[in-house]
Amino acid sequence: MEDTDYLNLLSQLHHCALARSYHSGKAKCEKDWSWRPQALIDYDLWYVAAGKGEVWLNDEHHTIAAGSCFLLRPGDRVAADQDPDHRLTVIFIHFQSSRSKLDKEASLEQGPLHLFPSAFVIQDTVWMETLLNRLLVLDDASPNELEHTEFAAVLRAALCVMLKTYEETHQQTSKHHAIIRRLIRHIKENPSSSFTHEQLADYAGLSSRYLNTLFKKQTGVSLKTFMARTRIERACHLLSECRMNVTQIADTLGYSDIYFFSKQFKHFVGESPLQYRSRVEATHMHTFNSASSR
User: Fold this and answer.
1) Domain span at residue 79?
2) What is the DSSP secondary structure assignment for residue 83, as one 8-state letter?
3) N or C: which end of the chain has fewer CB within 10 A?
C-alpha cells in the first residue's frame, strides 16, 4: 500500500460520522442456512466467529473461516453459503455513516467509506471479537448521547483493526514479492550452481517448506522446476552461441549425467540438444544467406 493511499484511508476513517442502525446480532446459522439478502440499505460489518463457507460480494468469490470479516456497503450484492459440516457463527453490526464537513475531497456520488477495503482476514480475533461484542451491547442500549458516542468510538476502533490487518497483509505480500524477485535473480545469475532447497531457503531467510509454497504461489511453478528450467535456458544460450559440445555444456551446468541432461532438455524444449543446435544453426544460415542475396 502506498503511503498516500494509507493516509487517505486514515483521513476518511477519521472524518466520517458513524451511528447505530439498531440492527445487529450474533447467530449460529441453521443447518440449511443460505444468505441471499436484498441490496443493502446501510453498512454492515459482517464477521465470522466460527465455521467455514463461501461469500460472493458483488460477484467476487471469497472462501471464509473464523476471522473473515467484510465491510458491506449500501447497494452491495451479497450471497453466502456455509459448509454443513462446519456451520457458521456470525456477528453482524449494521450502522449508518455519512461524510464529515471536513471531508472535502469526496464527491457527492462517493460514500463516506468509499476507499475502505471490503474483505479482511483478522489476525487478532480476540480483540476484534471483544470490540464486536461491546458493539452488540451498545446497539441494544438506550438511545442516549453517551451510548451514541461510545458506539461510534468502538466501531471506529473495530474499523482500525480491519485497516491495520489490511496494511500488514499488504506489506507482507510486498515483502514476499521482493524476496522471490531477489531469489530469482540469484538463481539466474548462477545457473550452474546446484543449489539445495535448504541453501536457497537460508538465502531467502525463510523455512524450506514455506519457501516452496510461497515460490509456487507467486510464480506458478515449483522451485525445483524453475531451477531446472533456468539451467536449460542457459544451455540453449550456450548451444546457440558457443562451440562447446553437449557434454561440455552439461558438465558446465552441473549435470553429472549427460543422459539426464538430454532428457531434461527435451522435456523443456521439445527436442534434443543436438537437434536444437542444428535447427538454430540452420535458421542463422538461412538468415545470413537471405541478407547476403540482397
Assistant:
1) 3-171
2) B
3) C
